[in-house]
Design a protein that fits this description.
1 helix, three-stranded antiparallel beta sheet
Length: 70
């Protein structure tokens, strides 16, 4: 993807849920591993997913409240 024209990516914050990322993008994990992604993925925002950086729905089980820091 490095040599391709830059693509549009949309990041949406889901109320009390994950980040929804849609488009073509490069995902770099905490170890520096790079992975090309295409389409829609959901990234953990609550910090409790067992499949980080991806959301596994744990925010529903722990009643994640994104207004707690307001």
């Amino acid at each position: 993807m490095d040599n391709q024209e830059e693509k549009k990516v949309t990041v949406t914050v889901v109320h009390n849920g994950p980040y929804s990322v849609d488009g073509e993008f490069l995902l770099v994990d905490k170890d520096g591993t790079k992975k090309d992604e295409k389409g829609k993925v959901f990234l953990c925002r609550c910090g409790h997913s067992h499949h980080k950086p991806f959301c596994d729905g744990t925010h529903l089980k722990i009643n994640f409240d994104d207004t707690a820091d307001d």
